[in-house]
Each structure stands twice: as C-alpha cells, then as structure tokens.
Amino acid sequence: MCLVAIAWKAHPDFPLLISANRDEVFHRPTSPLHRWDSGIFAGKDLQGGGTWIGFHPDGKWALLTNYRDYTQKRNPKISRGKLVLDFLESDLTPENYLDKIWEKKSEFDGFNLLVSDGDKLYYASNYGDSPMEVPQGIHGLSNGLLNDPWPKTELAKNQLSELMSERPNQEQLLQTLKSTATFPPETLPKTGAPLPLEVGLSAQFIRIQPDYGTVSSTAVLRSGSGFTQLTERTFDWDYRSFKDQNINFQP
Predict the structure, then answer these.
(1) Is 244 exposed, middle or buried (0-12, 13-18, 19+ CB in 10 A)?
(2) Which CATH code is given to the segment(s) 3-249?
(3) Is the N-terminal amide bond of 210 cis, ω within 30° of 0?
(4) What highest taxon heads this organism's lineage (predicted)?
C-alpha cells in the first residue's frame, strides 16, 4: 500500500475501517484478493511472493507501505511483502512478531508495518523508533512514518473522519483517497525524489506516465461481532474500467 487511512476503534459500530491505495507499476504480476491455500485473505505479488494487506480468518490482519528515501540506497535481502505474510501465517502475537522483525530490520528495504490480532494494533518502521502500540483514533500512513503530516495523508484522515458520524459502506470507503490534485512543492516532504516526481507522487490517486500509478484500492469494514467485509477494486491502466473482488468472513 502507498496511502492508508484507518479508523481504529473510533466508530461506535465498526472497530476497524480501512481505506487504502496501492501504487505500483501496472505490469508487475499480481493476483487479486483471494483466499490462499494457507487460509488467509489477500492479494499476491507474484514477483516477490508476498502481499501488501492481508487478513486471517481468526481476526488477525496486517498491512505494509514502503518508506520512500531516494537518498539512501539499501540492499534488501528479503522482500517486504513477506512481512505481512509471515505474521498472518505465524502464531506470534503482534508484539512478539515485531520484536522478531526488529532484530533483522536492516535486511528489508524501507517499510512501514501495521500488525493486529484484532484486539491490539502495533506499528513498526525500519526508519523509525522501536515498535509501538497504536492508540485508538484515526491514523494515516503513506511513504513516511505513521501520521507524518504529508498533505495527502492529512487529507485522507479528514476524508475518513467525515464518515464517522454515519454508518459507512464499502463504496463510501472506496470513494475516499481519490483526489488527483497535487500539492505545492513547499508543502511536500523531502524524500530525495526529483521535484517533478515528488509533486506527481503528492496526489492521492496517482498516474505517472508511462505505467506507474494507483493500481488498486481496498476497503475494509469490521463490525463489533468481527464480521469483516473486504473489497479490492483493481483499475485498468487507463482508469476507464475496474474490477471488484469481494470477500466477507466471520472469525
């Protein structure tokens, strides 16, 4: 994922709401949201073998964004997508899993990782301080640290906040994070990207020629009973059409 807004225990009826965009090159081989042989629900990066967001039938979930830093070239030994997959397929608690990951954080390219057992939510980044528990509230994550005030991240949090006074549905969540507006250079983070690229990446919904942009969006609704609704909307390269994958489950 490259832009995420999360309402964590902030809505009276839905302890978990997620709206997220995945930005990627359009030709990267990917399987859409489906149930894996191991039982988890996720899309699959067929190149790296992992995933960017996934859910276990027992209520565990995890998601990942890249940390953007063009100033420091890393030599990763392990695909970042394995961070989500390994947590979902393990028996470790979020705290224990992040402690394990923290010991080898240098083996990954820059990442932001959120992991939850359904009751507690934890965050870690190999560009940040030690792993931390995430408090209830509305949180935003892009390619900086959790809740870094990037313009599109702040907009994402505001968009999700506007849904807190009603009972949102999947389509409402999917319609957030869709702004194509870019922001003035003086408001943007300094990630080492060339300025034209930094400006292009400042939009919520990205299309950078010839083949990079927002390839899919994900909406997650989890009720107090644990009933979870997942929708992944995958876009055609020219954004003239899309396809939805829907999965519902009860832990």
Answers:
(1) middle
(2) 3.60.60.10
(3) yes
(4) Bacteria
pTM of the model: 0.96
Q: What is the per-residue pLDDT across 34-87, written as a single tens digit (0 to 9) for each?
A: 999 999 999 999 998 999 999 999 999 999 999 999 998 888 888 999 999 999
DSSP 3-state percent helix, strand, coil across the chain (nearest 5): 20, 35, 50
Beta bridge partners of 218: 20, 232
Distance separating alpha carbons of residues 26 and 239, to the nearest angstrom? 11
d(CA 71, CA 160): 32
The answer to whether the CB of 205 falls within 8 A of the CB of 21 is yes
What SS3 class is residue 179? coil
Q: Which residues pair with 21 in a beta bridge?
A: 3, 217
Contacts of 11 (CB under 8 A, 6+ apart): 17, 164, 168
Tokens of 40: 């988890």
What is the signed CA dihedral for 209, 201, 87, 128, rounded to 10 degrees? 150
